[in-house]
Structure formats: structure tokens, C-alpha cells
Amino acid sequence: MQDHKVNSAKRKKSGIPALLALIFVIMLLAGCGNNSAADSGAGNGAAQTNAAEATPSPSPEVEPAVAEAAEATSYPLVVQDELGHEVTLNTAPTKVFAPYMEDSLVVLGVKPVGQWSNKGQGQQYLQDQLAGVPLVDFTSGLPSPEVVMAMQPDLIVLHNSYYAENGVYEQYSKIAPTYVFQQAAGDLDSSLTILGDLLGKQEEAAKGLADYRKKVEEAKTTLAPHIQDKKALIIRFNSRGMFLMGGVYGGFVLAEELGITKSDLVAAENSVELSLEVLPQIDADYIFLANDTANTGESFYKELTESALWKSIPAVQAGKVYDVDDRYWLGGGIVAYSNVIDDVLEILAP
Description:
Blueprint: H1 2-13, H2 18-41, H3 45-54, H4 62-68, E1 77-80, E2 86-89, E3 96-97, H5 102-108, E4 115-117, E5 135-137, H6 145-150, E6 155-158, H7 168-172, E7 178-180, H8 188-199, H9 202-227, E8 231-238, E9 241-245, H10 250-257, E10 261-262, E11 271-273, E12 286-291, H11 298-305, H12 308-311, H13 314-317, E13 321-325, H14 326-329, H15 334-348
Parallel strand pairs: 3-6, 4-5, 6-7, 8-10, 8-12, 12-13
Antiparallel strand pairs: 1-2, 8-9, 9-11
Pfam families: Peripla_BP_2 (PF01497)
Protein name: ABC transporter substrate-binding protein
Signal peptide: 1-37
């Protein structure tokens, strides 16, 4: 455009008095500059960002993220999963089996062909959105290839690498293309974005994440005066015992999303078995208790909360112990994490 302006000025200069030529060049430069801004705004991300800043929007975080995801997935699609397997999708999947990732599927507006369940119960906080989706029992481990095959999935997604062990990946991948995450709940931005890419639901993924990020930032602002120099700890109870939860599920929300420091006991661990002898080492200012929904951990819960050592913990004496709903505190996804944030706000900043 700059070359065009110079050449135009030369063509116009002959036969025109110098002063008029100068004025004309100045006007031409100004007009061409405006046209350049308009042209680049149609296809340049920076120009679009500037335009968005100049025009106030009710949801400034949402629109750029959604715009970036506007280009739809083209099939056939060939990708590598997080364990290095090559995954090929010839067409957009319509029959998805992604056990324990139903939360993310709900955000994307996708109903799976089957949903994770334990002892006949799916993730209760999602059942309104998963009405009619058959339960697939994980009580004794992953379902057999025959059970999975009967659902006729055209994409299988395993939410952590543990699910792929002991020959499971090899068996499932013969049924349908199978994508494996290392730990989907540990990086929600990445896992939801990848799932959106696989399913051709990039716009839904981007909007869901943008809305969630806005909620996180607003919660951090509200909680800031209540969590400064404070530590938090989640204790989980089930039929196998008591466990300190680290940086996954509700622990991920507390530490990584809301910025509440983890207890030193789980600083480098996702889960640590808890015994009464460890109680004097608990350094948390806030303690959250997540008992198994079916109360299979009730005996351990009573053993802990009725012990003299428990009652001597400073957080217990200060009344900073809170029972929470394990159905989403131990869930992984935007819906679960949003519910955890709501609980924390209600508890710490009522």
C-alpha cells in the first residue's frame, strides 16, 4: 500500500502547483491509511482485537476465544494422543464413549452412547443432562471389550493413562479409534479443547472455557482477602480408607484455579493415604471432608472425626472444617469445577 501511495503522488504531481500537490498527497495518505485499517480488520487478528477493545462488549473474554475456534475440524483427521498413539477419524464422531468425561461432553452439547457408573450410580450432578444414557458399570474395573463393542462407538476416549493399561488400549482400539489422555482432569483447558477438536465442537469448547475462566477470575477476586497466606486440604473417605487429596479434582480447583496453597502433606502428591498418626502434621487452615456418596467411608469418617488427635488440630478447633459433596468435588470438568467454586465462595466468602 505504501508503494501505491508514492506512485500515485508522482502521477498527480506534474501540472499541479507544488503547494496543491503537497496538500493532495497528505489527503491521499490519510484516506489510504483508513482503507488499510479497514482491509486488515477483515483478516487480521490484531486489528480485530483492537476493534473489540474500542467497542465495549458484555462478555469481552468470550468473543475472541470463540472467534479463534471458528475454523471447523476437517476430516479425515489424524492426531497423536497423549501416549503417542496415532488416532485416525475418517468422519466426525457421533457415537462417543468417554467414561468419566461426561462433564466435558455436556459442555460440548454431546450425549455419549454410555456413561460411567459405580455401583449403579452415574455422576449424579450430571444426570439432568444425561437422561436416557445407559450406565456402564466400572465397579470392578473397566468394562469388557464385548460391553464396549455392543454400544457401537465410533470414538472412545480414556480420561487417564491408567485406563489404557493391561491391554485395554489394544482391545478398545480394535473396536473404534481410541484417544488416551495422561490425566484429563489435570489440564481442563487442554483436554476440553482437544475433545472439541476431535468432535468438531471447537466453538462450544472455546465458549465453555471462556465462561469458566471468567467465573474463576471473579471468584479469585472475591476470595483474595480470605485466602491470603492460608492453606487448604481435602480428605476423602471411601470403602478403602481415608486419603488426602492433592492437585486433582477439587484439589486442582483449590490450588491451581483459586490459588489456595496446598497443605505440605500433598505438595507433590495427588493422593496420600491418611492414618491417625499423621494428624498432628496437618497444617491446613481450611479442611474439606468428602465422604463417599454411598457412605461406604462412614466408618473411617467417624474414626477420624471422633479421635482426640483430630480434635486437637488447629483448623478443627477454629471450626474451619466443612463437609462437601464428593459427587462433584471428585469430578473432573467445567460443571464439577464450577460447582466446587460455588461451594468455596459460599463457605469462605458468604
